[in-house]
């Protein structure tokens, strides 16, 4: 888990694009994220990005008010497209060539997701933004990130969290004694029900031996450092030697 990656996928939550705003997109924050990705591309790193939509819409929460869950989730997919286009624009203003691919057909604004085309874009050092999740309701954008990273042969999945600098044994916002893990295994994260990502996404990473780095998107140059393979946040992997299980 050291050294610059050849190809990596960054998972950005919708909340990571809000900055200090209570809703929507903060242009300064998006520009900051885009600048780090642009510097990684200049380092010859191939970068894919999956964006969430929680700054606009959360399908599961809306469904609790009585809306059909599938319909609510499809609306959430549209929110991820808005975020993807905002990030695309910020990257293009920095001279980066970007392709946004969506799991739902919307040819007026983005390409359809085609695996081989996405890989070719990455080989040409274009940033590929994967939007609209997996295109299926009941599937989170964490699952979309794991799936796309595996499909396009990424070496690592970088989970950029909003205000959380790694994986803890308890919620650090509620428990001042919460302890941060430097390394842990997939099974440890699943068995302890730690908030790394949803269990479907974590199981997918485990089955395909895709390492995960969890870090704070607000850390100075956090995305760039993660893409360069510098030690940051917490690492989740299959290697028990590199990820010792800490006993309580």
Question: Can you give me a brief rundown of this structure?
Answer:
The chain is of the alpha/beta class and 248 residues long. The protein has helices at residues 27-42, 59-63, 69-92, 115-123, 141-151, 186-191, 199-207, 222-227, and strands at residues 7-12, 46-51, 98-102, 111-112, 127-131, 156-161, 167-168, 180-181, 183-185, 212-216, 234-237. The chain folds into two domains: 1-139, Carbamate kinase (3-Layer(aba) Sandwich), CATH 3.40.1160.10; 163-179 and 187-219 and 230-248, no CATH class.
What do you see in this structure?
- It is a single chain.
- The protein is an alpha/beta fold and 248 residues long.
- It folds into two domains: 1-139, Carbamate kinase (3-Layer(aba) Sandwich), CATH 3.40.1160.10; 163-179 and 187-219 and 230-248, no CATH class.
- It is 35% helix and 19% strand.
- It contains eight helices and eleven strands.
- The protein has helices at 27-42, 59-63, 69-92, 115-123, 141-151, 186-191, 199-207, 222-227; strands at residues 7-12, 46-51, 98-102, 111-112, 127-131, 156-161, 167-168, 180-181, 183-185, 212-216, 234-237.
- The strands form two sheets. A nine-stranded mixed sheet has the order 4-3-5-2-1-6-10-11-9, sandwiched between helices. Strands 7-8 form a two-stranded antiparallel ribbon.
- The protein is globular.
- It starts with 6 loop residues before the first strand and ends in an 11-residue tail after the last strand.
- 45% of the residues are buried.
């Amino acid at each position: 888990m050291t050294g610059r990656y050849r190809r990596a996928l960054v998972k950005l939550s919708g909340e990571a694009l809000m900055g200090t705003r209570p809703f929507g997109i903060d242009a300064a924050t998006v520009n900051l994220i885009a600048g780090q990705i642009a510097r990684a591309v200049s380092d010859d790193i191939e970068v894919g990005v999956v964006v969430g939509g929680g700054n606009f819409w959360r399908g599961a929460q809306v469904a609790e008010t009585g809306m059909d869950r599938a319909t609510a989730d499809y609306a959430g997919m549209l929110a991820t497209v808005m975020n993807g286009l905002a990030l695309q624009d910020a990257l293009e203003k920095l001279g980066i060539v970007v392709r946004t691919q969506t799991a739902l057909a919307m040819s007026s604004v983005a390409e359809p997701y085609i695996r081989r085309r996405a890989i070719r874009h990455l080989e040409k050092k274009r940033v590929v933004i994967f939007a609209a999740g997996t295109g299926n309701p009941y599937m989170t954008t964490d699952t979309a990130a794991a799936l796309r990273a595996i499909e396009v042969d990424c070496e690592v999945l970088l989970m950029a969290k909003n205000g959380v600098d790694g994986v803890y044994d308890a919620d650090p916002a509620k428990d001042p004694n919460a302890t941060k893990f430097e390394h842990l295994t997939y099974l440890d994260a699943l068995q302890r029900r730690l908030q790394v990502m949803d269990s479907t996404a974590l199981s997918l990473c485990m089955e395909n031996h895709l390492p995960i780095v969890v870090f704070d998107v607000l850390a100075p140059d956090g995305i760039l450092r993660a893409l360069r393979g510098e030690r940051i946040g917490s690492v989740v992997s299959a290697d028990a030697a590199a990820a010792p299980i800490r006993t309580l």
